[in-house]
């Protein structure tokens, strides 16, 4: 099996009022190229921490383990190097950037990644043509491009904007950290369509969610159950349906 993302024995902690607080406790996970995997788990199991560690957030300290991404040592790379290599993180709660124009932000990010990959940058005309096609696909008003990043956006607009960024950056590996949180059914379908439209032999994704309903639209290849900082069970899409019906108790008892 071609393991595009291979996480081995990953341990990570965060500073908690001057004391180390372990969160990831020997996590193992393998995601082959071309597959979409999902992680579900109770609150506090470390799901968001995993997404932050993979993206390179610096307030989380990796204390053990390794992460190989497309043949590279992901943990040795800076956040911008990870982005250039093709890693993308969609946040659960996208931050607002007052004073930063949405279109300018997108064009700067896209061209930074293109430069790092040795590709030609997009001029203003080519960028606007591309981004307007994407906003139409995502049922977004072009007016959102003129606004500051996420400032005054509704929850659904923020998530659409995250998917727009993902579509424009065309990552090799996308991490969606509870992107479906707080979405109505129409916005949920937009998020799922954004992931599904990128699916192919050179794209993989890790979808972190509490709800089986998103997975009805994305239909992951594998579903993993996470608790206490590690993966305790893995299976097919039926795992999500079992969790929806029965909860986590069976898996938590088996892993105790």
TrEMBL record:
Keyword terms of this UniProt record: ATP-binding, Nucleotide-binding
Q: Which residues cross the membrane?
A: none
Instruction: Tell me the domain of life.
Output: Bacteria
Residue stretches making up the ABC transporter domain: 5-253
Matching Pfam families:
ABC_tran
Output the Gene Ontology terms for molecular function.
ATP binding; ATP hydrolysis activity
**Key word Transmembrane present:** no
UniProt lists the family membership as follows: Belongs to the ABC transporter superfamily. Ycf16 family.
Q: Which PANTHER family does its entry note?
A: ABC TRANSPORTER I FAMILY MEMBER 6, CHLOROPLASTIC
Q: Can you name this protein?
A: Fe-S cluster assembly ATPase SufC
Q: Which organism is it from?
A: Brytella acorum
């Amino acid at each position: 099996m071609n393991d595009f993302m291979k996480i081995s024995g990953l341990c990570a902690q965060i500073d908690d009022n001057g004391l180390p607080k372990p969160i990831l406790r020997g996590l193992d996970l393998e995601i082959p190229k071309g597959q979409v995997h999902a992680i579900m788990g109770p609150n506090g199991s470390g799901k968001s921490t995993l997404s932050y560690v993979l993206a390179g957030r610096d307030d989380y300290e990796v204390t053990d383990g390794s992460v190989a991404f497309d043949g590279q040592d992901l943990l040795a790379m800076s956040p911008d190097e990870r982005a250039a290599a093709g890693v993308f993180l969609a946040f659960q709660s996208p931050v607002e950037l007052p004073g930063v124009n949405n279109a300018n932000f997108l064009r700067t990010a896209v061209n930074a990644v293109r430069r790092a990959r040795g590709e030609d940058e997009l001029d203003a005309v080519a960028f606007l043509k591309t981004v307007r096609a994407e906003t139409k696909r995502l049922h977004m008003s072009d007016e959102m491009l003129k606004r500051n990043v996420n400032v005054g956006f509704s929850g659904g607009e923020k998530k659409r904007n995250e998917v727009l960024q993902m579509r424009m950056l065309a990552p090799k590996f996308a991490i969606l950290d509870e992107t479906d949180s707080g979405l109505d059914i129409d916005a949920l379908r937009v998020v799922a369509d954004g992931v599904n439209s990128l699916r192919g032999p050179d794209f993989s994704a890790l979808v972190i969610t509490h709800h089986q309903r998103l997975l009805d639209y994305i239909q992951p290849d594998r579903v993993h159950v996470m608790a206490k900082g590690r993966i305790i069970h893995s299976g097919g899409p039926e795992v999500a349906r079992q969790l929806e019906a029965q909860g986590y108790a069976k898996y938590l008892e088996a892993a105790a």
